[in-house]
Every structure is written in C-alpha cells, then in structure tokens.
Write a structure and sequence with these properties.
Elements: E1 2-12, E2 32-41, E3 44-50, E4 61-64, E5 68-72, E6 74-76, H1 88-95, H2 100-105, H3 110-118, H4 122-138, E7 141-147, H5 154-170, E8 174-182, H6 193-210, E9 216-221, H7 228-239, E10 244-249, H8 257-263, E11 268-271, H9 277-283, E12 289-292, H10 294-300, H11 307-312, E13 318-319, H12 333-344, H13 348-355, H14 357-361, E14 380-385, H15 391-394, E15 401-406, E16 409-410
Parallel strand pairs: 1-4, 1-5, 6-7, 7-8, 8-9, 9-10, 10-11, 11-12, 12-13
Antiparallel strand pairs: 1-2, 2-3, 5-14, 14-15, 15-16
Helix pairs in contact: 4-5, 5-6, 6-7, 12-13
This protein binds N-(iminomethyl)-L-glutamic acid (NIG) and zinc ion.
Length: about 400
C-alpha cells in the first residue's frame, strides 16, 4: 500500500542520512522542508521532498494535509507504564506537606505500588496497562520503553515483564522492556539489603534472562535505595545476559552514579535533576545519552535537569515522560516537550530533537525511529492547522494533534 501525503505545510526532522543522535549546538537545528510531500509504502517511509519536485504517480491513496505540519512520532525512552492502581492519596499527602522521601519512609512510594501490583492479577494488570498505552499512542507516542520494578519479587517482576511482552505482541508500536528489580528494597529486606541484591543477581535476573523478557537493565541509584557499589554489582552480573544498562541516577543526590554508569557502557542515564560539574564532564564524548524527565520535576516540585547547561556543554539530550504512579502520572510527550521549553529553557528545536531522534537513541531504536528518513518506520504525527511548530510547546496543555500514523497505519 503506497500512501502519498501532499501539501504538508512543513515536514519536520528530515534526515537524509542515518543520524543516530544529536549533540550540543546541532540540537538547535531542526531540518525541515516547507510545502512538502511524504510517500509511505506499507510500514516504511519511501520518499519525501518539496512539492515542486513531486513526480510520483502510482499510489493507492493521496491525502491532502494542507495547513498541517508532519513530524516523527514521539519516542518515549523512559516509562513505568505497567503499574497497578494509583497513588492519589500520596499526591494529597504531598499537598498537605509530606515530602516524597517522608512518604517512602512510611512504606508509601514504590513499596506501596509493589504491594498493589503483587495483589493484582496478570489479566487485570494487562487491562490497566492497555488503557494507558492506547492513550499515549493517541497522544503521538510511536515508540516506548517500559520498565518492571513494581514487583520486587521474582513472581511479580516476571508478571510485569510478561505484561510488557503481551503489549509488544498486541499493539502496533515498538516497545522495549527493561528489568528494574533494583527499584526499591522490599520491607522484608529492610535490614538486609545485600540479601535482596543477591536475590536479584542469583534468582530473578537469571529467570528474566532465560525467559528473554528484557533488553535493558535499570537500577535506582540513590541514597536510601541502591548505592553506586550496589548498582555496579548488579550491572556487572547482568553482562553475562547481555542486558544493556539504562539507569535512574542523580534524582535527589549526586553520588557518583553517572561516572559508574558511563564506565559500564550505559545506553542512557536518566533523571539528572541534581548535576555536579564532574557529572557533566564525565558524559562528554561518550555513547551514553542523558535523559531528562521534566514531568517528574513538575509533579514532585523538585529541580529540573539542567538541560540548557548540558546542551551548551556539547552533550546530547533526550526527553521522556517517566510515566508512573508516583512521580509522573502522565505519559503525555506533548506536555514533556512544552515543559522542557518552559522550565529547562531549551528551544522548540532542541526539545523536538530530544523527544524524537535522541529519545529513539536512548532505547536503541534510532536506526528505525525518530526521524523522517527513507527506510525508517512510517511513524508520524499530523498536527491540526497550526501557525508553526513552535506553537506546539507554546500552546501547552492543549492537543494539536489531528492524526497519528504508526507503522503506516492511522490509529
Ligand atoms: N525514581 C524512581 N522511580 C520512579 C518513581 C517511582 C515511584 O515513585 O513510583 C521515577 O523514575 O521517578
Ligand atoms: Zn523512572
């Protein structure tokens, strides 16, 4: 099936050559074609260019999108979309003055979600997750990473990962799965964290790998959760199973997790709300993508990742939602892009690069997703009639998406 889109007001993020990530000053450039056409064949991008060069005749369908902008679908490289229930009560507790840390210390937070998830059947967990996935796809997300980490027992971690696997099978969207057994220390291991780490390394990780349920491995490296040494031990052990690290670091404290992650060839380091000079230095000229999660900062009222400074230092930068019940109960990438512009002071061009091609890189998908490139997946957003692409973050909180096309299919 060949579908030709014509009279595109502006086609964004067009990359003729395979570009896998964008760094530093380059991030301020968003290659576009005004008054463009786009040809797709089945699930792939076949051709594109200015309307005046259009000379294609044999197509099955032509769609006139006059006045609309087309951009690649969002690539959300960090989510916890598979979870059970919600943490609305903790939200109210925080409004009433408790901190995220105080709530966690009372047995709330991740442990609260783990308890609910352990008591939820796989079928019910799948149903709840389907609704969230369908919602984010309609909001323009075309590739997504999903973590475990609300199980914290072998059985419940596998349940989460099986649900992710089912989503992969049943939905027309690229999904990458990450094993995050080291998300929090279960209360029964409160006085013996090492025993839980041993359990992850010797029991849960081998089962996850044997069942082939994860591509990536994550650790929440933070005071009160897992130390740098804990993280190193878990990531070292995962090498045997060829799981690539993508890690939670520097959310509340800078404890050296970035340096260790880079050494362990992490594909991405995520959160980064608290960054020391040396953390920025150590990321330079590496293959590790720094990922900011502005909705987490917004929802928890914590500092924003210093994206401006990081990009000005020459680093690449990606944006993701962190969709989860505790620190970011939203999977809306449009809001991520707007919040990054407003609060991190990055430009619409930088934010769109961060949420498309660099997001794809941060989950190992930039060869197939994240830009309008011949041969890549036909994954894109058609906007409503809007004045310019800068209007997308400017008009924050409103949806300016008219149509989402994933793998050539309009959803
Ligand atoms: N920080 C660690 N994990 C999640 C939130 C976990 C939760 O509060 O449920 C995050 O990325 O923000
Ligand atoms: Zn997270």
């Amino acid at each position: 099936m060949r579908i030709l889109y014509i009279n595109i007001k502006e086609l964004l993020q067009v990359r003729e050559e395979n570009t896998y990530k964008i760094s530093g000053k380059e991030m301020s450039k968003l290659p576009t074609i005004k008054n463009a056409f786009l040809l797709i064949e089945d699930d792939l991008i076949k051709d594109f260019g200015p309307m005046e060069t259009l000379s294609i005749d044999a197509v099955d369908k032509t769609i006139d999108v006059t006045g609309r902008i087309i951009l690649p679908s969002w690539c959300d490289s960090h989510t916890h979309l598979v979870y059970a229930g919600n943490r609305e009560q903790e939200f109210v507790d925080r409004i009433n003055g408790l901190t995220y840390e105080e709530i966690a210390n009372k047995g709330g937070g991740i442990l609260n979600s783990a308890k609910t998830l352990q008591e939820t059947s796989e079928e019910e967990l799948y149903e709840q997750s389907c609704k969230r996935l369908e919602t984010v796809m309609k909001m323009g997300t075309g590739a997504i990473e999903i973590k475990s980490g609300y199980g914290l027992t072998a059985e419940a971690e596998l349940k989460m990962l099986k649900v992710i696997e089912l989503l992969k099978q049943n939905y027309n969207i690229a999904i990458k799965s990450t094993f995050l057994g080291a998300h929090a220390v279960p209360s029964e291991y409160k006085n013996n964290k090492q025993a839980y780490i041993d359990k992850i390394i010797n029991e849960i990780l081998p089962e996850v790998a044997k069942a082939n349920l994860a591509e990536y491995i994550d650790v929440f490296c933070e005071e009160g959760y897992f130390s740098v040494a804990d993280m190193e031990a878990i990531l070292e052990a995962s090498k045997e199973y060829h799981l690539i690290p993508k890690v939670h670091v520097n959310q509340f404290n800078a404890i050296g997790g970035i340096k260790a992650s880079v050494k362990l060839n992490a594909l991405s380091v995520d959160h980064l709300e608290v960054m020391k000079e040396e953390d920025i230095e150590v990321l330079k000229n590496t293959e590790t993508m720094p990922v900011g999660l502005p909705l987490c900062s917004y929802f928890l009222s914590i500092p924003y990742t210093p994206a401006r400074k990081m990009i000005d230092s020459g680093l690449p930068f990606a944006l993701a939602t962190d969709y989860n019940p505790g620190s970011s109960p939203s999977g809306n990438m449009n809001l991520v892009v707007a919040t990054a512009c407003i609060k991190m002071r990055i430009t619409p061009e930088e934010a769109i690069n961060a949420a498309t091609i660099n997001g794809a890189y941060a989950m190992g998908l930039s060869k197939t997703h994240g830009s309008i490139t011949k041969g890549k997946k036909a994954n894109f957003i058609i906007t409503k009639e809007i004045p310019s692409y800068g209007y997308l973050p400017y008009d924050f909180g409103n949806t300016n998406i008219e149509t989402v096309v994933l793998n050539g299919i309009t959803i």
